[in-house]
């Protein structure tokens, strides 16, 4: 495989799987993917499954991530958890600003930026999600929306630990994925913006994932694109066979 950056295949389980299902899943998955050294595999279960899943995967190649955090360390924030509370739990990644968080829970670039900073402060890597809505794409606003999300979300963030996930909102959970060419076009734009915000060297090192209806039958063509460094998978990461096939992508 001729990829400059270590591919990252991440499963976002959203609000699916009770703890015993999550545990059994990772035990099975670990058997299937333990031989891969040229790609990184990540699962993001619900928070209630994190302690057990982390324990099961402690000596595994599979990494553990969470789907959301609040940015304060502790305090009167009913229902929230902080990145600080995850330290010691073998959590490597935190998804920040998923479009479902933006749309259903009212998150904006400012709060997402605070979350990114707080995740970095606790030694974990944020997976910063950005993407345009369908009407924005139709109006030709894709690039300006992406640029705004990047500039506002990364404002003041100095780090060497960052992953970006480009997830066009119209492709999430709809079965309508961006074509590899559409995704590549936006990924290369994101890399150019990262080189302006940071530096060319930094932008070459950052992984940019694609997300939105990734399936076994489109993974290979997506991963063949030069600026697609991995994927963030929702629905197709819930079944062991489809997730294992996505992990086993071929370029
Ligand atoms: P999907 O979700 O693969 O089910 O479209 C992707 C995501 O929300 O990260």
Tell me about this structure.
With 251 residues, this protein is of the alpha/beta class. The chain has a single domain (8-247), classed as Alpha-Beta Barrel (TIM Barrel), CATH 3.20.20. It is built from 10 helices and 8 strands. An 8-stranded parallel barrel has the order 1-2-3-4-5-6-7-8, surrounded by 5 helices. Helix 1 (19-33) runs parallel beside helix 2 (50-56) and helix 6 packs parallel to helix 7. The longest helix has 18 residues, at 180-197. Bound molecules: 2-phosphoglycolic acid.
Number of strands: 8
Q: Give me the secondary-structure category.
A: alpha/beta
The CATH architecture = Alpha-Beta Barrel
Distance between the termini: 7 Å
Summarize the biggest pleated sheet: 8 strands, parallel, barrel
CATH-defined superfamily:
Aldolase class I
Query: How large is the radius of gyration?
Result: 17 Å
CATH class: Alpha Beta
Strand content: 15-25%
Mean pLDDT value: 96
Helix content: 25-40%
